[in-house]
Amino acid sequence: xxxxxxxxxxxxxxxxxxxxxxxxxxxxxxxxxxxxxxxxxxxxxxxxxxxxxxxxxxxxxxxxxxxxxxxxxxxxxxxxxxxxxxxxxxxxxxxxxxxxxxxxxxxxxxxxxxxxxxxxxxxxxxxxxx
Length: 130
Description:
Blueprint lengths: L9 E3 H7 L4 H8 L5 E4 L3 E5 H15 L15 H6 L1 E2 L2 E2 L8 H15 L16
Antiparallel strand pairs: 1-3, 2-3, 4-5
C-alpha cells in the first residue's frame, strides 16, 4: 500500500503564505483581507486551505497577462475573466492600447539603430527638414 500525504485542511498563519508561495508581507497585504480567518486555541489563527485555493484561482483569472502576440492563435475564451469585467450586466468599453505610441517609437529607434536608410523608413516617422 502506498503512503499518500493528505495536506491539512486548516493552515496556520505561519504556513499559509508559504502554501501560496509568497512572502508573509505580501500575503498580509494581498490575501489576508480577502479570506476568512478563524481562531485556533488561545493565540493561533487558521485559514481554510480550500478558500486559499479559491482565492488563488480568482486572483490568477483576474490578474493574468496574455503573453501571446496578436499573430498567434486566438486565446481560449475565459468566461470567468469576462464576467469580472462586466458592470451591471454590460461589458466595459474597450480601452485604447497604452503601448501603441511607444511601439511606434520603438520601431523608429530600431530602424535608426539597424542603420536603415531614410527612404526605407515609414514617412510618418521621418522628420521634415526646414
